[in-house]
Design a protein that fits this description.
Distance between the termini: 75 Å
Shape: elongated
Strand order of the largest sheet: 3-2-1-4-5-6
CATH class of the largest domain: Alpha Beta
Number of helices: 12
CATH topology of the largest domain: Endonuclease, Chain A
Structural class: alpha/beta
Number of strands: 6
Helix content: 40-55%
CATH superfamily of the largest domain: Endonuclease Chain A
Amino acid sequence: MVNIKELNPNASPQAAYGARLRRVREARGWIQDHIATMVGCTGRHISAIETGRKSATLPFSRKLDAALELVGTPESFEREWREMKHGSLLEGFPEYVGYEARAVEIRLFEIGLIPGLMQTPEYARAIANGDLQRGSITPEQADERVSFLLERQATLVRPRPPMVFVVMDESCLLQAVGGPKVMNTQLQRLEELAALPNWFVHVSPFELGARRAFNLPVNLLTLSDRSVVAYAESQAQGHVDREPSFVVHMLTAYHQLHGEALSQAASLAKISQLRKGIP
C-alpha cells in the first residue's frame, strides 16, 4: 500500500494550497502523474507542492487553472497564489488583479493619489514608505507592494494592450508625494502615458463639486467576452462584483463622470502647468 502523507492545511498558506490541490485532484480521480503531464512538470513536483515541500509559482498556478477549468473563477489557484503571496493586500484585490491581467478595457477613477497603474516606482515607493513609517506594514510588505505594482504594470505591455481610460480627481495631482523631484517625474509620466494610443487621461476638476459620480476609487474591467468586472474599495476592504445590475449602474455613473471631466487636452494642460510650477 502506498504511504500517503497526512496534510495539515492550517500549517501555512503554502500547506493549504497543497492540501487543496490534492483534494481537487483526488475528487477527479487523477493521479499525480496525470495532472503533472497536463501542467508540464513531473509527478514528483506535484507531490512536493501537495506536501508543502515546494512552493507553487504564478505560471504553475495558471497552468493548473487551465487544466482544472478554473480560470477566472473564485476557486482558481491563481487567485489563491496571489492571496498567499500578497496577504497584506485588501481582501478582493488579488482576485481583481487576476481579471485585470486579461482585460481588454480598463476604466479607473481615483481620489487623492495617482492610480497605481500610472505610478512611477519612486512614487509607489514613497507611498509604501508612508505606510511603513506609520507601522501599518513591514519593510518586507513595502517591498512586496512595489514589486506587485510593477508586475501589474508589466502585464499591460503586450502585443494587444488594453484600452485604459482614467479619470483622476484633481486632488490626485496636488498631493505632494515623495517631494518635488518625485512629483515632477510622476507628472511627466502622466504626460507620456497620455501620448500612447491606448491611454486616455482625464482630470475631474474640483469645480465639478456634487456632480462627481463617485466618492471612492472605482475600477471597471471589460473582458474579452464583453462581460464587465467592477472593483471598489473602502479603507479596510475591497470587493469584486460581476452582478450585471450592479455593474451596469457603476458603468453608467462612470460614463457620466467621464463626460463631465476635462478633455484630455485640457487635462494635460493642467498637468503641464502644475509640473512647471514645481520648484
